[in-house]
Write a structure and sequence with these properties.
There is one protein chain. The protein has 239 residues and is of the alpha+beta class. The chain has a single domain, classed as Immunoglobulins (Immunoglobulin-like, Sandwich), CATH 2.60.40.10. The protein contains 3 helices and 12 strands. The longest helix is centred in the last third of the chain and has 26 residues.
């Protein structure tokens, strides 16, 4: 009996470890070459340790929160708006290889240092972190502290993806706000592919019942020969 109990415990332990490994494997990191765009909100590293600003005006905060977009989580900070643009579809297949993402986030404080983590979730639920931003400041409910990135997607299988953005506290790393394709349709079912797959493609068609390239050349040659012969005959008749 003791042997069976020990065996069951070992099986349960192995199952637990496997489950943990599977859940951890669902989030991987694959950083992409990315350019940041922002207003003058970047801050020196030594300022990160400074305390938060004072509490912002309560009425202004309440008004801003009432018009914020739908998001899965928010605390002292939240996403006020997110603009997403899919770019570069050189091969015309409906899948894009460049992303431009701009958001405006607000805070209940007059100043709050933060950074953003961007990830893509594929159709099987696997999540890949593709960029972690530098640290920037949020200023109460200002619309002038927006933050944007533009990135070419590398090593990305063609498919439909959800975008997730997490806003993190610069001092603690705690989640301040989170939004994804689970919350808003504009961040869902994004048709994306690898930048190296997005090349201009030339298509050639040929079959037993169609006119191929060499057949077209042959017909052109035959047409020109007949035209020269007809011109020669007309010239003879005129003379």
């Amino acid at each position: 009996m003791f042997t069976n109990r020990l065996k069951n415990l070992l099986i349960a332990s192995v199952f637990t470890v496997s489950t943990i490994q599977m859940s951890q494997a669902q989030v991987v990191e694959d950083l992409q070459p990315t350019q940041e765009f922002q207003t003058n909100t970047a801050i020196p590293k030594f300022q990160v340790e400074q305390p938060l600003g004072l509490k912002a005006d309560a009425n202004a905060v309440q008004l801003a929160q009432s018009t914020a977009i739908n998001q899965s989580y928010q605390s002292t900070a939240w996403f006020q708006s997110v603009d997403l643009t899919l770019k570069r579809d050189f091969n015309g297949n409906g899948f894009f290889s460049r992303l431009y993402i701009r958001f405006d986030a607000n805070t209940e404080y007059t100043r709050q240092p933060a950074y953003a983590v961007y990830s893509l979730i594929n159709q099987n639920g696997y999540e890949t972190i593709f960029y972690t931003s530098s640290i920037f400041n949020l200023f109460d409910v200002s619309s002038q502290d927006w933050f944007a990135i533009e990135t070419n997607l590398d090593r990305l299988p063609r498919g439909l993806y959800k975008l997730r953005i997490q806003l993190k506290d610069a001092q603690t790393g705690f989640n301040l706000a989170e939004i994804s394709g689970y919350d808003t349709a504009s961040l869902d079912r994004m048709a994306l592919e690898d930048v190296y797959s997005d090349d201009t493609v030339t298509y050639y068609e040929e079959s037993g019942g169609s006119v191929g390239v060499f057949s077209l050349l042959g017909l052109s040659f035959l047409y020109m020969s007949r035209r020269r012969k007809l011109v020669a005959q007309n010239s003879t008749l005129l003379h």
